[in-house]
Amino acid sequence: MNKAVLQYLHPEHVEVEIWRSDKLEVPRGLSSELDEMWSYVGKKAEPRWLWHAIDHHSGTVLASVFGRRQDDVFLQLQELLAPFHITRFYTDGWGAYKRHLDPAQHTIGKARTQKIESKHINLRTRIKRLVRRTICFSKTNHDA
């Protein structure tokens, strides 16, 4: 609040709205982080992508789709998100997001996608199938 400006304003021209910080999304609309991660079944030449969206504040998964890294798969995810009436999307710079999200509602950058990136790290750590084979190692490699 700018107290210096308030000294010069007439009280009738000032409107104050007070909200709890955890309830701010109610009047402003839901914000979501979108991202995709890949894995493969059988051959690395045929990767499959998990596209999903989480609530920016709570980290709750809102929707997910499996498929290729193509626009039509993103459009399926976007269709699943329609009932949530999301007003702000946070993504990386992948082209499908730029082509299909309204620029006024879309923020690109890693600063606002930390929760979804953290979920990806946790998935890769806990589900070894999602980790590249060159990173995984067997117990027999370490037995002396």
Give the amount of beta strand, in percent. 25-35%
Output the CATH homologous superfamily.
Answer: Ribonuclease H-like superfamily/Ribonuclease H
Number of helices: 5
Judging by the overall fold, what is the CATH architecture? 2-Layer Sandwich
Overall form: elongated
Give the helix proportion (percent range): 25-40%
Rg measurement, Å: 21 Å
The number of E-state strands comes to 5
Low-confidence stretches: none
The largest sheet, given as strand count, sense and whether it forms a barrel, is: 5 strands, mixed
Strand and helix order: HHEEEHEHEH
Across the major sheet, the strand order is: 3-2-1-4-5
User: Which structural class do the helices and strands define?
Assistant: alpha/beta
CATH class: Alpha Beta
Describe the protein.
The protein is α/β, with parallel strands linked by helices and 144 residues long. The chain has one domain (29-131): Ribonuclease H-like superfamily/Ribonuclease H (Nucleotidyltransferase, domain 5), CATH 3.30.420.10. It contains five helices and five strands; from the N terminus they run H-H-E-E-E-H-E-H-E-H. A five-stranded mixed beta sheet has the order 3-2-1-4-5, sandwiched between helices. The chain starts with a helix and ends in an 18-residue tail after the last helix.
Keywords:
28% helix; 5-stranded mixed sheet; alpha/beta; elongated; 144 residues; single chain; Nucleotidyltransferase, domain 5; 5 strands
